[in-house]
Automatic annotation (TrEMBL):
This is LysR family transcriptional regulator. Belongs to the LysR transcriptional regulatory family. Residues 1-58 form the HTH lysR-type domain. GO terms for biological process: DNA-templated transcription. It comes from Enterovibrio coralii. PROSITE patterns: HTH_LYSR.
Length: 301
């Protein structure tokens, strides 16, 4: 017997209707009916007499009802107990953040958040890997890209624009590409952490909002954004990276934005957490804190 089915049975018995129980719990009427049938099959007895007008309990149903009600109350008590804990800004959170944003602002922002709430401990993992939040025990992840897992909830923070850049020394030696297609004649350094392919660079088609891929090649590739930036600064080639990674380099002139307004790649940055109707107060507060820190330097992106 599944405990959730027994608790559902208590609701059906109390309300006297599959439909009313379905409405109360936000379920489809057919789901309620199938789960009660499953409970009856598991127990090997009929629990309800069903007619077009009403439901009534069988002898077995009357026998099960007190236990089902106790299970329902225990479930309510458990939720209230957890909610009381989660509403307090203390305890522990496990958070996964991407390396670029982690180095840029998240590590400091999360440390600041813990300073504001002395009873709270946050363990931060910097990784570009899309961790499995549920299986690996993460309460929150900051992700750049696309959300495919429907068991997760995502809150959009902002979008991250990518750019094509190189050092003035590289441009002086090899010339400046005047179009995306001209990149085929240059040494384009690859950032291998790209879902679209390290050598597939996305641009707007000339004079339109349509997007196209330009395939480029080069003699160096890495999955580490910081290493790619250093290679570009040293004049070894052209890179295709998030603008926030090289924002200060562009401002200082040590890197040049080669094809402004032509790069089409823009990825959303999201705060992602496991689906629940009642996310903890500390998770919601941390998301707001992180979101504000991103918005404070939105011009980086």
């Amino acid at each position: 017997m599944k405990t959730d089915d027994a608790i559902l049975f208590a609701d059906v018995a109390e309300l006297g209707s599959f439909k009313l129980a379905a409405d109360k719990l936000g379920l489809a009427n057919s789901v309620v009916s199938k789960r009660i049938q499953r409970l009856e099959k598991d127990l090997g007895v009929q629990l309800l007499h069903r007619t077009t007008r009403k439901l009534s309990l069988t002898e077995a149903g009357l026998s099960l009802l007190p236990t089902a009600k106790r299970l329902a109350q225990l479930s309510i008590d458990a939720v209230e107990s957890v909610n009381q804990l989660s509403s307090e800004m203390k305890g522990r959170l496990n958070v996964s953040v991407p390396t670029i944003s982690g180095d840029l602002l998240l590590a400091e922002a999360i440390a600041e958040f813990t300073s504001l709430h002395e009873g709270l401990r946050i363990d931060v993992t910097l990784s570009n890997r899309f961790v499995d939040l549920i299986d690996e025990g993460y309460d929150l992840a900051i992700r750049t890209g696309y959300l495919e897992d429907s068991s997760l909830v995502a809150r959009h923070i902002l979008d991250s624009q990518w750019i094509v850049c190189a050092s003035p020394e590289y441009v002086a030696k090899h010339g400046r590409p005047d179009s995306p297609d001209a990149l085929r004649n240059h040494n384009c350094l690859h950032y291998t952490y790209q879902s679209t392919g390290a050598g597939d660079w996305e641009f707007f088609a000339s004079g339109t909002d349509d997007k196209r891929i330009v395939k480029v090649s080069g003699n160096f590739s890495t999955n580490n954004a910081a290493a790619l930036r250093k290679a570009a600064l040293a004049g070894h080639g052209i890179v295709y990276v998030p603008r926030c990674l090289v924002y200060h380099d562009i401002q200082e002139g040590t890197l040049m934005d080669l094809l402004p307004k032509q790069v089409a790649k823009k990825l959303g940055i999201y705060a992602v957490y496991p689906y629940t109707k009642h996310p903890s107060q500390k998770v919601k507060a941390l998301i707001e804190h992180v979101r504000q820190r991103y918005l404070d330097i939105a011009y980086y992106f």
